[in-house]
Specification:
Mean pLDDT: 83
Number of strands: 7
Number of domains: 2
Radius of gyration: 21 Å
Order of helices and strands: EEEEHHEHEHHEHHHHHHHH
Low-confidence stretches: 274-278, 364-373
Protein backbone atom coordinates (compact mmCIF):
# COMPACT_ATOMS: atom_id res chain seq x y z
CA UNK A 1 0.00 0.00 0.00
CA UNK A 2 1.31 3.45 -0.92
CA UNK A 3 2.24 5.85 1.85
CA UNK A 4 -0.11 8.81 2.40
CA UNK A 5 2.43 11.17 0.81
CA UNK A 6 2.69 9.14 -2.43
CA UNK A 7 -0.90 7.88 -2.60
CA UNK A 8 -2.42 9.48 -5.71
CA UNK A 9 -6.00 8.50 -4.99
CA UNK A 10 -8.57 11.26 -4.55
CA UNK A 11 -11.53 11.48 -2.24
CA UNK A 12 -14.77 11.39 -4.21
CA UNK A 13 -18.40 11.26 -3.17
CA UNK A 14 -20.23 8.65 -5.24
CA UNK A 15 -23.91 7.77 -5.47
CA UNK A 16 -25.36 4.33 -6.06
CA UNK A 17 -28.18 4.18 -8.61
CA UNK A 18 -29.36 0.99 -6.94
CA UNK A 19 -29.91 2.43 -3.46
CA UNK A 20 -29.46 6.22 -3.91
CA UNK A 21 -26.93 6.10 -1.06
CA UNK A 22 -23.81 8.24 -1.23
CA UNK A 23 -20.46 7.24 0.24
CA UNK A 24 -16.96 8.67 0.23
CA UNK A 25 -14.24 6.55 -1.36
CA UNK A 26 -10.57 6.89 -2.26
CA UNK A 27 -10.63 6.70 -6.06
CA UNK A 28 -7.49 5.67 -7.97
CA UNK A 29 -6.96 7.53 -11.28
CA UNK A 30 -7.61 4.38 -13.32
CA UNK A 31 -11.10 3.99 -11.80
CA UNK A 32 -12.39 6.96 -13.77
CA UNK A 33 -14.52 7.97 -10.77
CA UNK A 34 -15.04 11.68 -10.32
CA UNK A 35 -16.65 13.61 -7.52
CA UNK A 36 -20.47 13.46 -7.59
CA UNK A 37 -20.44 10.57 -10.08
CA UNK A 38 -23.19 7.97 -10.07
CA UNK A 39 -22.37 4.28 -10.34
CA UNK A 40 -24.68 1.25 -10.65
CA UNK A 41 -23.73 0.02 -7.17
CA UNK A 42 -20.78 0.07 -4.80
CA UNK A 43 -18.21 -2.72 -5.23
CA UNK A 44 -17.80 -4.96 -2.21
CA UNK A 45 -14.02 -4.47 -2.07
CA UNK A 46 -13.98 -0.66 -1.70
CA UNK A 47 -13.76 1.00 1.71
CA UNK A 48 -16.69 3.39 2.20
CA UNK A 49 -16.82 6.47 4.40
CA UNK A 50 -19.97 7.91 5.97
CA UNK A 51 -19.96 11.65 6.64
CA UNK A 52 -22.13 14.57 5.59
CA UNK A 53 -24.35 14.19 3.53
CA UNK A 54 -24.50 10.37 3.49
CA UNK A 55 -26.99 9.97 6.33
CA UNK A 56 -28.84 13.24 5.70
CA UNK A 57 -29.90 12.05 2.23
CA UNK A 58 -32.43 9.75 3.88
CA UNK A 59 -34.27 12.73 5.34
CA UNK A 60 -35.72 13.47 1.91
CA UNK A 61 -37.61 10.17 1.82
CA UNK A 62 -38.75 10.47 5.43
CA UNK A 63 -39.97 14.00 4.76
CA UNK A 64 -41.80 12.90 1.61
CA UNK A 65 -43.79 10.38 3.64
CA UNK A 66 -44.52 12.88 6.38
CA UNK A 67 -45.67 15.68 4.08
CA UNK A 68 -47.82 13.24 2.12
CA UNK A 69 -49.61 12.25 5.32
CA UNK A 70 -50.05 15.94 6.11
CA UNK A 71 -51.70 16.40 2.71
CA UNK A 72 -54.03 13.47 3.37
CA UNK A 73 -55.09 15.07 6.66
CA UNK A 74 -56.66 17.88 4.63
CA UNK A 75 -58.77 15.40 2.63
CA UNK A 76 -59.79 12.67 5.09
CA UNK A 77 -62.89 11.68 3.09
CA UNK A 78 -61.27 11.19 -0.31
CA UNK A 79 -60.38 7.48 -0.73
CA UNK A 80 -59.25 7.96 -4.34
CA UNK A 81 -56.73 10.60 -3.31
CA UNK A 82 -55.52 8.39 -0.48
CA UNK A 83 -54.86 5.52 -2.90
CA UNK A 84 -52.88 7.82 -5.18
CA UNK A 85 -50.91 9.39 -2.35
CA UNK A 86 -50.12 6.03 -0.79
CA UNK A 87 -48.19 5.23 -3.97
CA UNK A 88 -45.83 8.09 -3.10
CA UNK A 89 -45.52 6.86 0.48
CA UNK A 90 -44.80 3.27 -0.55
CA UNK A 91 -42.18 4.37 -3.06
CA UNK A 92 -40.43 6.53 -0.47
CA UNK A 93 -40.57 3.68 2.04
CA UNK A 94 -38.99 1.32 -0.50
CA UNK A 95 -36.22 3.87 -1.04
CA UNK A 96 -35.63 3.93 2.72
CA UNK A 97 -35.60 0.14 2.89
CA UNK A 98 -32.87 0.01 0.23
CA UNK A 99 -30.86 2.77 1.89
CA UNK A 100 -30.98 1.34 5.39
CA UNK A 101 -30.42 -2.25 4.28
CA UNK A 102 -27.25 -1.26 2.47
CA UNK A 103 -26.03 0.84 5.39
CA UNK A 104 -26.71 -1.95 7.89
CA UNK A 105 -25.07 -4.64 5.77
CA UNK A 106 -21.98 -2.69 4.72
CA UNK A 107 -21.43 -1.43 8.26
CA UNK A 108 -21.87 -4.98 9.58
CA UNK A 109 -19.09 -6.35 7.38
CA UNK A 110 -16.89 -3.35 8.19
CA UNK A 111 -16.86 -2.03 4.66
CA UNK A 112 -18.67 1.22 5.54
CA UNK A 113 -17.60 3.36 8.48
CA UNK A 114 -18.87 6.45 10.26
CA UNK A 115 -15.95 8.85 9.93
CA UNK A 116 -14.91 10.86 12.95
CA UNK A 117 -17.41 9.04 15.17
CA UNK A 118 -16.40 7.50 18.48
CA UNK A 119 -18.48 4.31 18.48
CA UNK A 120 -17.96 3.75 22.21
CA UNK A 121 -19.42 7.21 22.85
CA UNK A 122 -22.14 6.52 20.29
CA UNK A 123 -23.22 3.39 22.14
CA UNK A 124 -23.22 5.00 25.58
CA UNK A 125 -25.11 8.06 24.38
CA UNK A 126 -27.73 5.85 22.71
CA UNK A 127 -28.18 3.76 25.85
CA UNK A 128 -28.52 6.95 27.86
CA UNK A 129 -31.27 8.01 25.45
CA UNK A 130 -33.04 4.73 26.26
CA UNK A 131 -32.81 5.07 30.03
CA UNK A 132 -32.72 8.78 30.82
CA UNK A 133 -34.21 10.16 27.63
CA UNK A 134 -33.94 13.65 26.17
CA UNK A 135 -36.25 16.64 26.28
CA UNK A 136 -38.49 16.60 23.22
CA UNK A 137 -38.23 20.33 22.68
CA UNK A 138 -34.44 20.11 22.79
CA UNK A 139 -34.45 17.35 20.18
CA UNK A 140 -36.67 19.39 17.87
CA UNK A 141 -34.68 22.58 18.39
CA UNK A 142 -31.34 20.88 17.78
CA UNK A 143 -32.56 19.14 14.63
CA UNK A 144 -34.68 22.11 13.43
CA UNK A 145 -37.80 19.93 13.24
CA UNK A 146 -41.17 19.65 14.96
CA UNK A 147 -41.52 15.87 15.13
CA UNK A 148 -40.98 15.07 18.81
CA UNK A 149 -43.30 17.69 20.25
CA UNK A 150 -45.84 16.95 17.52
CA UNK A 151 -46.06 13.36 18.77
CA UNK A 152 -46.55 14.52 22.37
CA UNK A 153 -49.23 17.03 21.35
CA UNK A 154 -51.17 14.39 19.43
CA UNK A 155 -51.03 11.95 22.33
CA UNK A 156 -52.24 14.64 24.74
CA UNK A 157 -55.18 15.49 22.48
CA UNK A 158 -56.00 11.82 21.92
CA UNK A 159 -55.85 11.03 25.62
CA UNK A 160 -52.92 8.65 25.22
CA UNK A 161 -51.28 8.47 28.62
CA UNK A 162 -47.57 9.00 29.02
CA UNK A 163 -45.42 9.00 32.13
CA UNK A 164 -43.67 12.17 30.99
CA UNK A 165 -44.81 13.78 27.75
CA UNK A 166 -41.90 16.22 27.75
CA UNK A 167 -39.30 13.45 27.41
CA UNK A 168 -38.37 11.21 24.49
CA UNK A 169 -36.98 7.75 25.16
CA UNK A 170 -35.55 5.56 22.43
CA UNK A 171 -37.23 2.15 22.45
CA UNK A 172 -35.66 -0.87 20.77
CA UNK A 173 -38.20 -3.29 19.31
CA UNK A 174 -35.84 -6.07 18.32
CA UNK A 175 -36.52 -8.31 21.30
CA UNK A 176 -33.21 -7.53 23.02
CA UNK A 177 -33.13 -6.29 26.60
CA UNK A 178 -31.12 -3.23 27.59
CA UNK A 179 -28.74 -5.55 29.43
CA UNK A 180 -28.11 -7.50 26.23
CA UNK A 181 -27.65 -4.30 24.27
CA UNK A 182 -25.20 -2.94 26.83
CA UNK A 183 -23.15 -6.14 26.55
CA UNK A 184 -22.65 -5.68 22.80
CA UNK A 185 -19.41 -4.22 21.49
CA UNK A 186 -19.88 -0.72 19.99
CA UNK A 187 -19.72 -1.91 16.38
CA UNK A 188 -22.29 -4.65 16.96
CA UNK A 189 -24.49 -2.14 18.78
CA UNK A 190 -24.39 0.27 15.83
CA UNK A 191 -25.44 -2.48 13.42
CA UNK A 192 -28.26 -3.47 15.77
CA UNK A 193 -29.49 0.13 15.93
CA UNK A 194 -29.70 0.25 12.14
CA UNK A 195 -31.57 -3.06 12.21
CA UNK A 196 -34.06 -1.57 14.66
CA UNK A 197 -34.68 1.49 12.47
CA UNK A 198 -34.99 -0.72 9.39
CA UNK A 199 -37.57 -2.94 11.08
CA UNK A 200 -39.60 0.15 11.95
CA UNK A 201 -39.46 1.37 8.34
CA UNK A 202 -40.76 -2.00 7.11
CA UNK A 203 -43.63 -2.32 9.60
CA UNK A 204 -46.94 -1.75 7.77
CA UNK A 205 -48.73 -0.87 11.01
CA UNK A 206 -46.69 2.31 11.29
CA UNK A 207 -48.08 3.81 8.07
CA UNK A 208 -51.65 4.43 9.19
CA UNK A 209 -51.23 8.16 9.78
CA UNK A 210 -48.73 10.95 10.27
CA UNK A 211 -48.80 10.26 14.01
CA UNK A 212 -47.97 6.55 13.74
CA UNK A 213 -45.22 7.30 11.23
CA UNK A 214 -43.70 10.03 13.40
CA UNK A 215 -44.09 8.05 16.62
CA UNK A 216 -42.66 4.73 15.51
CA UNK A 217 -40.45 5.49 12.50
CA UNK A 218 -39.34 9.08 11.96
CA UNK A 219 -38.41 9.72 15.60
CA UNK A 220 -36.03 6.77 15.48
CA UNK A 221 -34.16 7.96 12.43
CA UNK A 222 -33.86 11.49 13.80
CA UNK A 223 -32.59 10.07 17.09
CA UNK A 224 -29.95 8.09 15.17
CA UNK A 225 -28.81 11.30 13.47
CA UNK A 226 -28.92 13.16 16.79
CA UNK A 227 -26.64 10.57 18.40
CA UNK A 228 -24.30 10.65 15.41
CA UNK A 229 -23.94 14.44 15.57
CA UNK A 230 -23.34 14.27 19.30
CA UNK A 231 -20.49 11.77 18.99
CA UNK A 232 -18.81 12.88 15.75
CA UNK A 233 -15.99 15.35 15.16
CA UNK A 234 -17.69 18.48 13.70
CA UNK A 235 -15.22 18.60 10.79
CA UNK A 236 -17.24 15.76 9.24
CA UNK A 237 -20.46 17.80 9.25
CA UNK A 238 -19.30 19.50 6.04
CA UNK A 239 -20.23 22.97 7.29
CA UNK A 240 -16.85 24.68 7.37
CA UNK A 241 -17.01 27.81 5.21
CA UNK A 242 -14.03 26.55 3.24
CA UNK A 243 -16.16 23.59 2.12
CA UNK A 244 -18.42 26.00 0.24
CA UNK A 245 -17.92 27.74 -3.07
CA UNK A 246 -16.99 24.46 -4.70
CA UNK A 247 -18.90 22.21 -7.04
CA UNK A 248 -18.81 18.74 -8.51
CA UNK A 249 -16.55 19.82 -11.39
CA UNK A 250 -13.89 21.36 -9.14
CA UNK A 251 -11.10 19.81 -7.13
CA UNK A 252 -12.37 19.58 -3.55
CA UNK A 253 -9.36 17.72 -2.19
CA UNK A 254 -8.09 20.75 -0.26
CA UNK A 255 -11.35 21.51 1.54
CA UNK A 256 -11.41 20.73 5.29
CA UNK A 257 -14.07 18.04 4.89
CA UNK A 258 -12.30 16.18 2.09
CA UNK A 259 -8.93 16.37 3.85
CA UNK A 260 -10.50 14.92 6.98
CA UNK A 261 -12.25 12.19 4.99
CA UNK A 262 -8.98 11.26 3.27
CA UNK A 263 -7.09 10.99 6.54
CA UNK A 264 -9.86 8.93 8.13
CA UNK A 265 -10.11 6.50 5.20
CA UNK A 266 -6.33 6.03 5.05
CA UNK A 267 -6.28 5.36 8.79
CA UNK A 268 -9.05 2.78 8.44
CA UNK A 269 -7.17 1.09 5.61
CA UNK A 270 -4.06 0.83 7.77
CA UNK A 271 -6.17 -0.82 10.45
CA UNK A 272 -7.84 -3.16 7.93
CA UNK A 273 -11.18 -1.66 8.83
CA UNK A 274 -10.81 -2.49 12.51
CA UNK A 275 -10.33 0.56 14.68
CA UNK A 276 -8.49 -0.26 17.92
CA UNK A 277 -10.81 -0.68 20.89
CA UNK A 278 -10.91 2.18 23.35
CA UNK A 279 -11.67 1.99 27.01
CA UNK A 280 -15.15 3.38 27.55
CA UNK A 281 -15.30 6.61 29.52
CA UNK A 282 -17.83 7.01 32.35
CA UNK A 283 -21.28 7.57 30.88
CA UNK A 284 -21.59 10.96 32.62
CA UNK A 285 -18.43 12.18 30.87
CA UNK A 286 -19.63 10.85 27.53
CA UNK A 287 -23.01 12.56 27.79
CA UNK A 288 -21.48 15.84 28.96
CA UNK A 289 -18.99 15.88 26.08
CA UNK A 290 -21.68 14.95 23.56
CA UNK A 291 -24.06 17.65 24.77
CA UNK A 292 -21.29 20.24 24.54
CA UNK A 293 -20.67 19.12 20.97
CA UNK A 294 -24.38 19.44 20.20
CA UNK A 295 -24.41 23.01 21.48
CA UNK A 296 -21.72 23.79 18.93
CA UNK A 297 -23.54 21.94 16.13
CA UNK A 298 -23.73 24.10 13.00
CA UNK A 299 -27.28 24.39 11.76
CA UNK A 300 -26.48 24.08 8.05
CA UNK A 301 -26.92 20.29 7.61
CA UNK A 302 -30.40 20.43 9.10
CA UNK A 303 -31.41 23.92 8.03
CA UNK A 304 -30.87 23.09 4.38
CA UNK A 305 -33.38 20.29 4.80
CA UNK A 306 -35.94 22.97 5.63
CA UNK A 307 -35.45 24.18 2.06
CA UNK A 308 -34.98 20.82 0.36
CA UNK A 309 -37.90 19.00 1.98
CA UNK A 310 -40.68 21.08 0.36
CA UNK A 311 -38.82 21.02 -2.97
CA UNK A 312 -38.54 17.26 -2.66
CA UNK A 313 -42.31 17.00 -2.12
CA UNK A 314 -42.94 19.23 -5.14
CA UNK A 315 -40.73 16.98 -7.27
CA UNK A 316 -42.57 13.88 -6.15
CA UNK A 317 -45.88 15.50 -7.13
CA UNK A 318 -44.35 16.41 -10.50
CA UNK A 319 -43.39 12.77 -10.90
CA UNK A 320 -47.00 11.73 -10.37
CA UNK A 321 -48.17 14.35 -12.87
CA UNK A 322 -45.83 12.93 -15.48
CA UNK A 323 -47.37 9.49 -15.06
CA UNK A 324 -50.88 10.74 -15.83
CA UNK A 325 -52.42 9.87 -19.18
CA UNK A 326 -52.48 13.49 -20.24
CA UNK A 327 -49.80 15.14 -22.42
CA UNK A 328 -50.23 18.51 -20.73
CA UNK A 329 -49.75 16.95 -17.29
CA UNK A 330 -46.42 15.54 -18.45
CA UNK A 331 -45.34 18.93 -19.75
CA UNK A 332 -46.28 20.60 -16.48
CA UNK A 333 -44.35 17.96 -14.57
CA UNK A 334 -41.21 18.62 -16.61
CA UNK A 335 -41.57 22.37 -16.10
CA UNK A 336 -41.80 21.89 -12.33
CA UNK A 337 -38.71 19.66 -12.27
CA UNK A 338 -36.64 22.12 -14.30
CA UNK A 339 -37.70 24.98 -12.03
CA UNK A 340 -36.81 22.95 -8.92
CA UNK A 341 -33.35 22.15 -10.29
CA UNK A 342 -32.82 25.81 -11.13
CA UNK A 343 -33.67 26.80 -7.55
CA UNK A 344 -31.22 24.23 -6.16
CA UNK A 345 -28.43 25.51 -8.42
CA UNK A 346 -29.07 29.09 -7.33
CA UNK A 347 -29.08 28.13 -3.64
CA UNK A 348 -25.73 26.38 -4.08
CA UNK A 349 -24.18 29.28 -5.97
CA UNK A 350 -25.37 31.67 -3.25
CA UNK A 351 -23.78 29.40 -0.61
CA UNK A 352 -27.13 29.01 1.14
CA UNK A 353 -26.95 25.22 0.93
CA UNK A 354 -23.96 22.94 0.63
CA UNK A 355 -22.63 22.16 -2.86
CA UNK A 356 -22.96 18.52 -1.76
CA UNK A 357 -26.72 18.81 -1.24
CA UNK A 358 -28.75 16.46 -3.42
CA UNK A 359 -30.96 17.86 -6.15
CA UNK A 360 -34.41 16.35 -5.39
CA UNK A 361 -35.35 16.55 -9.09
CA UNK A 362 -32.35 14.46 -10.10
CA UNK A 363 -33.81 11.06 -9.19
CA UNK A 364 -37.10 11.86 -10.90
CA UNK A 365 -35.32 12.95 -14.07
CA UNK A 366 -33.28 9.74 -14.04
CA UNK A 367 -36.48 7.71 -13.66
CA UNK A 368 -37.97 9.44 -16.69
CA UNK A 369 -34.87 8.76 -18.79
CA UNK A 370 -34.91 5.07 -17.88
CA UNK A 371 -38.63 4.79 -18.61
CA UNK A 372 -38.27 6.37 -22.06
CA UNK A 373 -35.21 4.33 -23.06
Amino acid sequence: MASPSTDNRKVVLLKSLETQNRFYVLAPPESGWKNADTIPSFPDDVLLGIAYPCLEDGLNDFATIRTTFETLDYYPDDPDLRREMMVIILEARDNLRKRLTELRDRIARRQAHFLGTDLAEFKQYALNLCTKGAIRRTMDNMMKLDVFESVAEYEAQAGITSSDSTMFYYEFNTGRSLEELAAMDPHQFLVHLFEDVLQAVQNNDYYQSKYTFDRYVFQKFIALMFINYATTDPIFYGTNKADYGVSADRDMSDTPLYRAVREALLKLESENGFAPAREAAPVEDVVAAAEKRLLELPSTPIMEQKLLVPLNSICRVAEQLSKMDNPHAGEYGEMILKAASSIIRELKEMNIISPLARDPAERTAKTHEEASS
